[in-house]
Specification:
The complex is a heterodimer of chains A (90) and B (270).
Chain A (H helix, E strand, L loop, with lengths): L17 E2 L6 E2 L5 E3 L2 E3 L1 H8 L7 H33 L1
Antiparallel strand pairs in A: 1-2, 3-4
Chain B lengths: L7 H44 L7 H35 L12 H20 L4 H16 L11 H8 L4 H33 L7 H7 L5 H35 L1 H13 L1
Helix pairs in contact in B: 1-2, 1-8, 2-3, 2-8, 3-4, 4-8, 6-8
Classes of the chains: A mainly alpha (90), B mainly alpha (270).
Chain lengths: 90, 270
């Protein structure tokens, strides 16, 4: 619960508006950011987001090449199987 | 340049222009890369008809032809990817594409090989059910139409793009029907061209015209299969161009580019 006497931990002259839910610092309106309904200070928010992790394209390439080879192999097998079944019908 | 709203006629109209712009040398490249695949498909069908109900006993023979067919399909996929890029460049610039057409992005090509392989497998699995086969052809068309939208390699995104652009099913089915009719017309034209060719060659001294006329008849199974393969090769440039134009138009409709182009045209006319 914030009292009127509490001040922003960054700007001493400003009254506290919210409390960071991670580091419990008191924050003024400018310093507080609401994310997903929860107040955060700039540092904690930056730490939460972290650097955007890019997935290595190598794994995607391996996956796509493997899947393509499997599909092509299965295509050849199914081609023979379907052909034999259809030929057997006549 | 998006000239008209998305409809079957507007797609076919623009696809015809795109094919005329890409005829030389890109349509030639597409046909050259498709020929081995279509020839082996015809050979596979010929062997299948030859062995008939005993096909199960000739697994090795049929399997060897099927393996070669699948190897040549990769070459055909590359040819289609290059031609789809040529169509995209021709449709956006309105000029014959240059050497940049060769530079198909690796991610787009890999994504296309993945989706086209899946469509081919689906086609063979669903061969019994005509509806399933038609769906496989639709998926293959959208795969070639959306291939250049794949900027990164992904297992799921190419399929998500196909699903996203399959919302105009009526237009897609209509395109498929028109192209099917086109293949039938191409088949009749090819057969006639062979007849006229052998008739004209009969005037050349030493040419055994009756022997060739006997071979070039629809009654000859191998000739009929080769004609069907030839008709598919002839229609393929239109099939690819139509799907590239369709995806461009559908994308422009989503982003509002078609309306922007229409307003500019109206302003220019006023």
């Amino acid at each position: 619960m914030l009292t009127a006497a509490q001040r922003c931990s960054v700007h001493d002259q400003r009254p506290a508006f919210a409390r960071c839910m991670s580091c419990t610092k008191t924050l003024c309106q400018e310093c507080a950011t609401q994310w997903d309904g929860i107040w955060h200070c700039a540092q904690c928010l930056a730490a939460k987001r972290g650097p955007k992790r890019e997935r290595s394209p190598v794994f995607a390439w391996i996956g796509v090449v493997t899947a393509s080879l499997f599909l092509l192999y299965a295509g050849a097998r199914v081609m023979v199987w379907t052909g034999a079944v259809i030929a057997g019908l006549f | 340049m998006i000239r008209a709203p998305l409809s079957t006629t507007s797609v076919l109209d623009e696809a015809a222009d795109v094919v005329s712009l890409t005829a030389a040398p890109w349509a030639g490249l597409l046909m050259a890369t498709s020929l081995p695949y279509r020839f082996l498909q015809a050979l596979f069908l010929d062997q299948l008809i030859e062995v008939g109900a005993d096909a199960a006993r000739y697994g090795n023979l049929l399997g060897a032809t099927a393996n070669m067919t699948v190897l040549t399909i990769v070459l055909a996929f590359w040819g289609r990817a290059v031609y789809a890029r040529a169509c995209r460049i021709a449709a956006s610039r309105g000029t014959t594409p240059g050497r940049e057409t060769w530079r198909v992005p690796a991610a787009a090509l890999a994504s296309y090989i993945l989706t086209a392989s899946a469509a081919t497998l689906l086609g063979y699995v669903a061969l019994f059910t005509i509806a399933g086969f038609v769906v496989a052809v639709l998926v293959a068309g959208l795969a070639v139409g959306t291939l250049e939208l794949n900027e990164r390699v992904s297992l799921t995104r190419p399929f998500a793009l196909i699903v996203r652009y399959s919302n105009r099913l009526g237009t897609l089915f209509a395109l498929l029907f028109v192209l099917f009719c086109g293949a039938v017309v191409a088949l009749v034209n090819l057969a006639t061209a062979f007849q006229i060719g052998t008739w004209l060659a009969g005037a050349v001294a030493g040419f055994d015209a009756p022997k060739w006329q006997l071979l070039f008849t629809p009654g000859n199974r191998r000739f009929a299969l080769m004609l069907a393969a030839g008709a598919l090769v002839l229609v393929e440039p239109f099939w690819i161009a139509a799907h590239v134009v369709y995806v461009r138009k559908a994308g422009a409709e989503e982003s509002g580019d078609d309306l922007r182009a229409w307003f500019e045209e109206l302003r220019g006319a006023a």
